[in-house]
What does this fold into?
Amino acid sequence: MLLISALIAGQACGDSAVSPAANSPAAGIANAPAAGISSHAVVVPQPALQERDWKTIVLHHSATRGGDVATIDTEHRKHRDRSGNPWLGIGYHFVVGNGQKMADGEVQATFRWHKQLPGAHAGNRDHNDNGIGICLIGNFDQAPPTDRQVAAVRGLVKSLAERYVISRDGLVRHSDVQATLCPGKLFPWEPVRSELVARQQTLKEQTLKN
It folds into this structure.
C-alpha cells in the first residue's frame, strides 16, 4: 500500500517541510508498483484542519521533464492573482513523481491539502474552490507518463473519489475546464477515468440488488 509522504511546501506563515529522512524511500515511503499493475490502494493523509466538501478532481501535467513539490512551489510563487497579490505557493494539492527529482510513482501531498485550502491550478474559480488539483510530473505532449505514475494516479483518484463521493463526471482534465493543452495529448485519460467508471457501475449494481 502506498503511503503518501506529507511534504508541506514552506509558507510565509511559517510552514516547514518534513525532514529529508522522513521523506526518503529508506524511511519506508513505498513507490508505485512495477508495470503491469493497473492501480493500487492509496492512503490519503488526514488533513490538519477540517476537511472541505470536495466536488471534483482536476488532473494536470507539469509540462517539464522533471520536478517536485519544491520546484513547482518556487515557480508558482512568481505568479500573482488578479488583485496583484503573490500566490501562497504551489497551486496543487498532490504531486506524482516520474523519477526526476521525485521517485517514479511517488505521491506527495502539499500544504494546500494539509490545510484544506482552495487550489490555484484550474483557471476556473469553481474548480479551484471545490476541486482537488493533482499534478503529474512530465510533459505529456512529448511522452506519456510512466507506468508507475499511471498506477499511482489511478489509486489516488480512486481513494479520493471514495472519500468524497466524487462521480466519474467529477474527474476532469485541466483542458476540460480551461482553454489549455494540459495535461497533454499523450495523457492516458481513459485508463485513469476507468477507475471511477468501474466504481460507479459497481455502486449501481449494488443499489439494484438492494
User: Anything to note?
Assistant: The two ends are 31 Å apart (CA to CA). Residues 1-37 have pLDDT under 50 and may be disordered.
